[in-house]
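Ops channel
N.P.: pipeline sanity check, posting one input/output pair.
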């Protein structure tokens, strides 16, 4: 009887031992599952943060480029409006104004007639205004104080600009400078074009 009781006790205790080993396995599986999901969520959060940072950086650069473009275009538009106002306020010279200088200019340019010439009190230097109908503006004091040679040279220079239609090229240069203002080569190209244009008109 004692042996039978002992044997029955041994058989009954086996399932309890199996259940005791299953509980830690379930707890271990429960604790391991979040550890496998956590790296995936962290990677997604990191990717989302990186994407937001890139979008914000791109928007900041686009805003900076747009601000620079608008500034350059506004400054150019202001200059063109000022030139138009100066041209309207200037007084056009008569046909008998400085006939010797006009003949020298026509002979130097190989033309029978010159663009319209006007005198202005507000113009600091000789200039050409107008895109399709160029007009030469001369400072009034230059016409009164300059020598015949200096006045003829200034007039021939400006008439050369008008003949070459440089007024149509300048807006294109300003547009390129406005659109590509961050690029230093664009500004270098514009400076070289301005220098070459002045040298051509001098010669």
């Amino acid at each position: 009887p004692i042996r039978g009781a002992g044997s029955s006790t041994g058989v009954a205790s086996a399932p309890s031992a199996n259940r005791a080993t299953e509980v830690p396995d379930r707890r271990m599986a429960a604790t391991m599952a979040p550890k496998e999901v956590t790296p995936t969520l962290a990677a997604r959060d990191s990717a989302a943060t990186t994407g937001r940072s890139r979008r914000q950086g791109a928007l900041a650069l686009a805003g900076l480029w747009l601000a620079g473009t608008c500034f350059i275009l506004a400054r150019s538009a202001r200059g063109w409006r000022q030139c138009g106002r100066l041209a309207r306020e200037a007084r056009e010279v008569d046909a008998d104004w400085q006939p010797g200088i006009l003949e020298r200019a026509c002979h130097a340019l190989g033309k029978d007639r010159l663009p319209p010439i006007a005198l202005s009190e507000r113009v600091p230097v000789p200039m050409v205004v107008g895109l399709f109908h160029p007009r030469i503006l001369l400072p009034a004091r230059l016409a009164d104080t300059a020598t015949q040679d200096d006045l003829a040279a200034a007039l021939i220079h400006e008439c050369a600009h008008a003949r070459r239609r440089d007024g149509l090229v300048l807006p294109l240069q300003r547009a390129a400078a406005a659109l590509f203002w961050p690029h230093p080569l664009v500004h270098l190209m514009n400076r070289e074009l301005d220098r070459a244009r002045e040298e051509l008109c001098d010669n």
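N.P.: looks fine end to end. Strands lie at 91-92, 117-120, 127-129, 135-139.
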